[in-house]
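sorry for the late reply, my laptop died twice this morning and i had to redo everyting from scratch. anyway the thing you sent over, i finally got around to it. pasting the sequence first so we're on the same page, its 212 residues, then the predicted structure underneath. double check i copied it right bc i was rushing
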Amino acid sequence: MDLVNILKLSALLTFAYMLGSVPWGFVLTKLFTPFDIRQMGSGNIGATNVRRIAGNRLGMITLAGDVFKGALPVYLAIKLTGVNGFWAEIYVSLIAISVLLGHLYPVFLKFKGGGKGVATAAGCFIIISPIACLFALLTFIMFICLCNRVSVGSLGAALILPVAVWKVTNSIVLAICAVFISILIYLRHIENIKRLFSGTEPVIWKYRSPDK
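ok and here's the structure:
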C-alpha cells in the first residue's frame, strides 16, 4: 500500500469521528426552538427526545441526520477498500466504530452529552449489511408495538444485530464489530433500563380510556 492510500485511510477515520460528532439534535433545536435540548426531557440530543420536545418534524430531521452520518463514512470506506477480505472488514469496522464514538462522545460538545447511538449504528449497518439491518429494524418495530417504548425497541434491535450480521455476512469481523457497537448502545441505555425496571420509562403513545 502506498503512502497516498495510507493517508486516505487515516483521513477517513478522522472524518468519520468528526462527522459522528455533529450533534444534529442540539444544532436543530438551537436553530429552530428556544430550547437547549440537553436541559429538556431526558436531556438526550437524539431524535426521540427532539421529537418529544420540539415536535415530529425536527425529530425526523434529527433521525435522518444521525442515520446519514453513520452511512456516509462506511460507504466511503467500502468504496476505498471493498467489504470483502479480512483487512477490508477490519477497516470498515473501525470506521463504523469511529463514527459511533463520535456520536456518543462528540468533540463539539466537549465529549459529553452525545446520543444513544441507535440511528447512527443503523446508518452504518444499512451500508455494511442491509438485510441484517432490516432484521434489526423489524425487531425494533416489533418491540415498540409490544411495549410502547422506544428504548425497548432500541435494546431489542441492538441485541439481534450481531446475530443478524453473523448469519447474513458469515463474517466474524463484522459480527464482532456489531457486538461492540451493541455493547456501546446498551451502556448508553443504562438509565433507560433503570427506568424500565422502576416503571418510569416514558411511553410513545398515551392511551385514554373510552369514558374520558
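The chain has a mean pLDDT of 92.
thats about all i looked at so far, will dig more tmrw
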